[in-house]
Amino acid sequence: MDFVEACRKFISIDSTPSQGNWELALYAKELATELGLHVELQEESYGDLRQANVIVRPSKTAIHPALVPHAHAASEKKSGYEFMLQTHLDTPDPGPYGLWQGTGHNPFDAHIIEQKIYGLGSADTKLDFLCKLIALSKFSQQDRWTVPPVLVGTYGGETRMIGAMKLIRKNKVFPKIVLVGIPTDLKVAIAGNGLAEVEFFIPFSEEEKDYRIQHNLRESTATQSRIFSGKAAHSSTPHLGESAILKMLDYLQQLPEGIIVMEIDGGVSFNSVPSHGFLEIEPIAGVADPMSTKIITVFKALKSVESKFSQFVDEDFSPPNPTLNIGIMRTYEDHVYMCGSCRIPPSVSNENYESWMKLIKEKCDAVGAQFRIADYKRPYRIDANAALVQGCIEELEAMGVGKGNSLLTTHASTNESSLWSRLNIQSLSFGPGVRE
């Protein structure tokens, strides 16, 4: 196998959320088979997309009796445990192609410049899987393991980690320890933030709905509009961005009460700080239960929760406190939709988190708005003295990468380690590249 060409092929296959990872999974299976490994595809359909988890084991351990506990009677104790190397095969959307200067403005066309490879998925995280696949092939025929390895390339890492969750539910692997491949700048990430994805559905009053319909039929209007600009960033590091939606909501609450919101729009993802916002209003007196008041009530509830974050400091993280980000606002015929995320470090107890969500829900209920937690992943932390952590440190020291606790880090974003730790499985994260 030509490694460089395999890298180019991996990068060339579009596995963004809109395309799914099926084509890449088929190619990964082809390579694994060529390398003499045992490979299985866990096929699933998610919406209109065909997806797959790729599960790879050394050929002899793939049929070892200790590794087929699902073949035992349900009452029997599972006897097989594995060391799982897990990474996701999907990538985020590439964004504007014009920003991909290192690839000739094509993120799917790998370029090698000064011994570095550029392209979508080179660090996060398709090539991580490929490197581990080749490493695993060196042990293809070994059949004596204390804890045998299994390599898994999951789907849906960018969409609520649905592939990893399916892996758990179907008992396709039996991990005792897990190494998750994500960019950590070649440091051992022993803790990660939790993530709550929250949604709001704020209804227009019947009077407002009728008015907005009539407004669209008139030839002339008295509406006023304003555009708000910010700076995009990942929601795990909102301090690196500038939210256009926050600017827009601050402006909205300074306006007089007698207005109708014709349109409010901003952002592209719940998981990013929005760089743009648009607000169109029409001044009108005497409207009961206006949308503007409902939005401001919800906004104040969010600010009230955010004011509590300073009490929860975890200096292992940057930023060291919980964070809250509203990433999307959209106007529909009968409601305004908001979507955002709350990042939660391990210093926050589950009781604190639930109290914040309860406060937000109560304020939403008071104005007839629906509040929903679309997804929640708990924060996690592994003991720095755990054998898995210390073993990784020893290997990195032997390679001359660094020394001792300087090799330890945390990450503000959320990954599959949150899922494994919830099952009391020791897990940490490691990989090349800097997480933005």
Describe, in plain words, how this protein is organized in 3D:
- The chain is 26% helix and 28% strand.
- The protein is of the alpha+beta class.
- The radius of gyration is 25 Å and the shape is elongated.
- The two termini are 32 Å apart.
Helix count equals 10
* Low-confidence regions: 64-79
Mean pLDDT: 90
Strand content: 25-35%
Classification by helices and strands: alpha+beta
State the strand order across the main sheet.
Answer: 1-2-6-3-7-20
Largest sheet: 6 strands, mixed
Global shape: elongated
> What is the number of E strands?
20
Question: What's the SSE blueprint?
Answer:
Elements: H1 3-12, H2 22-34, E1 38-46, E2 49-57, E3 82-88, E4 111-113, E5 116-118, H3 126-137, E6 149-154, H4 162-169, E7 175-181, E8 188-192, E9 194-203, H5 206-217, E10 224-229, E11 233-234, H6 244-252, E12 259-266, E13 272-273, E14 276-283, H7 291-306, E15 323-331, E16 335-344, H8 350-366, E17 370-377, E18 380-381, H9 387-398, E19 408-411, H10 417-422, E20 426-430
Parallel strand pairs: 3-6, 3-7, 7-20, 8-19
Antiparallel strand pairs: 1-2, 2-6, 4-5, 8-18, 9-16, 9-17, 10-14, 11-13, 12-14, 15-16
In short:
By secondary structure, this protein is of the alpha+beta class. Helix content is 26%, strand content 28%.
